[in-house]
Amino acid sequence: MIKILSTNPGFEFVVSTRQGGLSRGNFSSLNLGLNSSDKPDNIKKNRRLFLGSVLNDDHELVYAKQVHGCHIANAEDVNPTIEADGFFTNSKRFALSITIADCHPVLLAHEESGNFALLHMGWRGTAAGILNNALNMFLGKNIQVKDLIFIIGPGIGYDFFEVGPEVKRHFRKKFWSGLPDGKGFLDLGASIIDDFLSAGGLHTSVRDSRECTYANTSKYFSYRRDGQQSGRMMALAWRKN
What we know:
Order of helices and strands: EEHEEEEEEHHEEHEEHEHE
Strand content: 25-35%
Radius of gyration: 17 Å
Distance between the termini: 25 Å
Shape: globular
CATH architecture: 4-Layer Sandwich
Oligomer: single chain
CATH topology: CNF1/YfiH-like putative cysteine hydrolases
Structural class: alpha+beta
Strand order of the largest sheet: 4-5-8-7-9-13
Number of domains: 1
């Protein structure tokens, strides 16, 4: 049911798999996507199962309307109607959450201050600068990029992420291959990691926990693979001390 991405002293970062829930058919079985076309009662029960297995009653779940953009909201200001694809806080009260089904979840965290951010990174948000927006929030707290922990989780892999020229033009050539029809394959995860390093992040601070959501059919949902019949996983991050 759970893939643990981080168990360091300061922060917890987990992502659900598609296993261990109550949904049927294409949504089998732990579909957590509120906006999917699965039965609402199944989604509610699945969320109770998952959240109850990792969080305690002291946590306040933070989530918003994801729009594949670059807005990052302070957790204290969030409600479910806000459009945001990332959250920032230093409070132990909040468990930050995003839903995913090919986009990468990314945790940025600073051990000493307790500040952390959880990002939903598809190609649109990445191209629009969501990572830089998050880094600027840390810089605003006098936290240098070189002092941040960076963890990237499951998302669609290079071999399955075929894109057109309208996507390729936003990314450096080393992260995509060209095809005769102008399309190509994009290594989105590698581009995200490179953006962090180019901004001053350290190789030793990067934890690459990528797995391909498209290729791992039994473990992950994938919108690119399953379209409207795709469920959603959830990524969670919270501060432990």
